[in-house]
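F.,

This is the one I mentioned.
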């Protein structure tokens, strides 16, 4: 079993981390248009396929992986928590690089962030309940599902509502705030991750191969799931790429924040979430490169858009 030193964490750090994540979500919400939500209902097939893979199939497969691989409880809980998260905003940019349907990617990110307020704690509680060792660890940490819901209200619901209001009534201010919040909050989050790794550097180095193996298998499963559901649903190439990347690039920043604020900074969970946050960027860029190479000389169906929502011919 991985034995990591307890990460030093107090009430002040709890408040600051929640504030950092809320700022990140606010930055995302400032760049989301109301049409991004409505698009899900106007053209429901592709987003429905993607959201089902993300919120139903991925947590189920992740639970199966944890039982099959027989990992330390902290790592298993970290994997299930990451799987229960919505997609992250960086998936929109990676989808653009992969010549996927960026409009679909943005819509899925926006809608997933909204419904994650309810589905994330339910998914995590439900699927972790199938793992006896994970349940025992949860008892030791004494986690209350209602506390996770309250955290999601604070770091997801309120920032999304505030960001939408600012974007609607003060679009110029929203554009300025979006760039600043995106960069500053990301730097602050990296600082928290760096502290977590520094405090447990010996154990991190000792179990690097195990952590990398877990994240590699888990992230590969998520990407393959996104591609397979899109293929089986007969989505066009651009939509299928968007779904694959959205399912394979979870908002691990949200997972990290929840680990620190609700799970007493459980080291195994913190490290697996931090490793996920690094690796999924690498794997996403590799997938985008493969997609671009595969696209040369081919005509693909589906709208391509810039990350800001404007159409372009790639």
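My design for it:
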């Amino acid at each position: 079993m991985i034995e990591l030193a307890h990460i030093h964490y107090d009430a002040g750090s709890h408040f600051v981390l929640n504030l950092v994540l809320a700022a990140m979500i606010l930055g995302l919400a400032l760049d989301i248009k109301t049409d991004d939500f409505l698009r899900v209902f106007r053209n429901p097939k592709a987003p429905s396929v993607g959201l089902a893979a993300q919120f139903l199939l991925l947590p189920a497969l992740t639970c199966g992986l944890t039982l099959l691989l027989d990992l330390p409880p902290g790592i298993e809980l970290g994997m299930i928590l990451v799987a229960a998260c919505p997609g992250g905003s960086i998936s929109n940019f990676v989808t653009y690089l992969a010549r996927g349907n960026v409009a679909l990617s943005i819509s899925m990110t926006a809608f997933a962030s909204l419904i994650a307020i309810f589905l994330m704690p339910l998914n995590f509680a439900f699927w972790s309940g199938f793992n006896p060792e994970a349940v025992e660890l949860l008892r030791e940490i004494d986690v209350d599902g209602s506390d996770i819901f309250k955290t999601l209200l604070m770091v997801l619901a309120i920032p999304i509502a505030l960001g939408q209001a600012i974007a609607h009534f003060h679009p110029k201010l929203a554009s300025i705030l979006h760039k600043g919040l995106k960069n500053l909050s990301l730097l602050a989050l990296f600082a928290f991750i760096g502290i977590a790794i520094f405090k447990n550097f010996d154990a991190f180095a000792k179990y690097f191969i195990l952590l990398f193996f877990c994240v590699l298998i888990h992230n590969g499963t998520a990407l393959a799931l996104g591609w397979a559901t899109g293929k089986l649903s007969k989505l066009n190439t651009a939509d299928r790429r968007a779904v694959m990347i959205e399912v394979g690039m979870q908002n691990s920043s949200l997972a990290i924040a929840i680990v620190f604020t609700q799970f007493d900074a459980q080291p195994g969970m913190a490290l697996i979430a931090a490793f996920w946050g690094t690796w999924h960027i690498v794997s996403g860029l590799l997938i985008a490169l493969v997609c671009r190479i595969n696209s040369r000389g081919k005509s693909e169906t589906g709208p391509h858009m810039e990350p800001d929502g404007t159409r372009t011919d790639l």
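Residues 305-314 have pLDDT under 50 and may be disordered.

Talk soon.
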